[in-house]
């Protein structure tokens, strides 16, 4: 009886664990989707930063160029040598920064197309700008690179060395900057579109995972509750059976398929003088002259009911007559697992 009770308890706990396993899996899927979403944002953000840097660098180059040309115009009307030197130094400053900005533009766009640019430390990790697999974005970046190369090829020969002294800002300059800025804006728009599309997909996966998790949790909780209720009901029935057996006027013994005693009721203790602890784990052969083990148990293994009036003995060796009935107790596989020995003392 103790083994039976223990088996029922283990069955309930194992069933609960098995039913909760899919819910844990759903939590894992949801967590993976969430962190994948965050990773997507971290990986796409550097590309957006580089494109924005190119736009800023174009504006900076344009500004230095205007300042440089304005300085040249101002120098023509300055007579004071000291003031002339100051303005000239400012012109050289803007020329140098224009050349530097053009170099930065070529570097940024080259790194963006090859995927070699880095954007510093974010969340303690050094992030690398990855080359985009989007054909449209790559086309726009290549067009931007061509516009930057055209601008550099046009500007650098006119401002390097002493050539800056004869530089004149014309409509050709404006057109080149406008074209480059237009392509930079188009690339920036496409990066935003890509991030939006991918994050939308990630959000959908995340939300679907949450819905899947919620539905799975409800489903398996309902299943688990039904099994738990059935388990508790079976335990209640088992407890009721145990109480009825304990209060029976007949001797009741439960033994396993090998005849090893697992349970005796209070009536057995009163009749034989054995305590429960003394008789537990002993063979049924201690109760009689071997008739139960020799004749009864083989029939029980064949699922046959066995009944006979036999002579039994108590703890002190005193004999008593009993009408002994043995019935098989089968498990879920329909194999004999236990047997019930019921004795009516005559």
Automatic annotation (TrEMBL):
The chain crosses the membrane at residues 15-37, 205-224. InterPro entries: PAS, PAS-like_dom_sf. It holds the Pfam family PAS_9. SUPFAM superfamilies: PYP-like sensor domain (PAS domain). The keyword Transmembrane applies. The keyword Manganese does not apply. Residues 243-288 form the PAS domain. Gene3D superfamilies: PAS domain. Keywords: Membrane, Transmembrane, Transmembrane helix. This is PAS domain S-box-containing protein. It comes from Mariprofundus aestuarium.
